[in-house]
Design brief:
two-stranded antiparallel ribbon; alpha+beta; five-stranded mixed beta sheet; single chain
């Protein structure tokens, strides 16, 4: 499993933007398509809200990639 650490600049980052910022897709629009596919989980629960607010301490998983969201 590949693990990625991402530091949030602010209170939260939208899920589709997070996927773009860590390099899993080329744009926020592509991130929305990935989220809509049902392949993304947040803290172990399937997440279908494309602009869900992801806050420090949460874990986002897509396939065998786990993103750890950290505070600044």
């Amino acid at each position: 499993m590949q693990e990625i650490s991402f530091t949030v600049e602010g209170e939260f980052v939208e899920l589709n933007q997070l996927l773009k910022l860590v390099g899993l897709c080329d744009s926020g629009g592509a991130g929305k398509v990935i989220v809509a596919s049902g392949d993304v989980t947040v803290d172990g629960q399937q997440e279908l809200r494309k602009t869900a607010k992801i806050r420090p301490g949460q874990k986002v998983r897509l396939g065998d990639i786990c993103i750890h969201v950290l505070a600044p």
